[in-house]
Amino acid sequence: MPTPHRLGFALLLAASLAAAQDANVCDAPGDYPDVIVGDIMNVQRYGTVDGITSYAIGTTSCNVGTCWLNWISGNPNHPVIGQNMFRLNNSRFEQIGQSWLKHGFAALNGTLCSGGGCEQTDGTHLGVNCSDPYGSGLNGSQSNLGPKSAVNPTTGVHLHPYPSQGTTGNAIYKRLQVHDTDLDSSLNPGALYFVEAHYIAADDHAAARSANNASYRPVAVNLSGGSYNVVTIGPTVREQPALYAWKAADPSVQIRNSTVNDNEIFVVGSKATALGGGLWTYEIAIHNLTSDRAARAFTIPIPAGATVANIGFHDVDYHSGEPWDGTDWIATVGSNSITWATQTFAQNPNANALRWGTLYNFRFDADVAPVSNSPASIELFLPGTPLTAGARLIGPDLSGAPTGAGAGSVPDGHSTPGSPFLVETDVNGNLVLSWDDSCVVTDSDYAIYAGTIGDFGSHAPVVCSTGGAASQTIAAPAGNAYFLIVPVSGAREGSYGVDGDGSPRPASAAACRPQFVSGCD
Predict the structure, then answer these.
(1) What integer best gives the mean pLDDT of the chain?
(2) Residue 417: predicted pLDDT
(3) Is the preceding omega at residue 477 within 30 degrees of 0, hence cis?
(4) What percent of the chain has pLDDT over 90?
């Protein structure tokens, strides 16, 4: 059945061809496409098989970049669209469903995100400030749904033709699948539900714009005639993955990114709740947003002598022929850490790694009070460098553990205070750098520079983009080194800080970007 917004597509396309402007390809310095989910329109129920109900989410994309985004049918130069569902209940934010990926085939020239300023195209690109609606009928069309396993979320590149292209099946095949028990209000009293849409596109990722490609929206679950229907109930929250809904509902939750390399992002949510009698329960959710290397283990340190109990794990089902093993991760308690792990890549290439577009949960009780900047380590699944990604979360207080460089220390021997900046060592000997957000609200990214202590003008780039994360894991350098965190806004870098006498520290001779310094209020 055709989706209503696509009726008359040939007429719309002909009109856009006549009105299209000169091609705004991404060929000028600083140009970039930037696809976001501008709106999650609706949720459609398709049917139930063996206690599992399937859905599809209607989405409207927008290009908020400065040049056209590819949207070409019949080859890999088009976006793919993932759909997920989550539940928040009893302070636990869990993923309860996922779909295969809708492959885009043409883009319209809507104005949802521009107020009328759409730069029209002929349908093979999404123009600047243009929007394109894909209804739930299209996003649930089985013949155009492909597996997540055929997509590299770090580069945005996907196989084409893709596996199972054109195939159809029963009512739940390939679609967003959710167990009815996860929707049953008698089993989940007071639960809140959310859906998420996530666009992946190679040209968007090549421009390092992939951190904002997911949006979410709250929904309500209604039981009618024995069927669970899902309806949207609040506005779409743009450019944030659904894990941020946890913090929106509970301000005590902490959300921080853990970035491996450019475009490889894990989003880490954490919360601690006092149980009384000196006991605390810790709840941690990790969402693999864009890491193709995935994760196979998660380690959180605990103080020696701590008592740990009620260790738990939660993941989400793969389905419809995806090759991944769904075996739960095994938890191991050591003398000073807890580790959850699945098999290594060498042991099983199809092991239950934390793959992109999925969220896994880790939980435990301990007789240790929490701190808000506790270290943790995410071990990556696919071979490569680095082996791990550092994370910062609400975790047990490691009293007496070394904390590295103190807040506000500067490398010239003075002590001018600044934003807290910690340099720590993870369990694998890598350095974990973490810092406070920039005081300029338009700063959306960070670059990291390192130099040799004693030669305080020697700083050179280590990482030109953290993907917006305020933490980064890097290999420990040889010798004595200092590090500088430089905020980034668009195509410009900000201040490298000031020396002890108040003079601005010079920009690197090999700076990642031109510098423009904006003051803070």
Answers:
(1) 88
(2) 41
(3) no
(4) 69
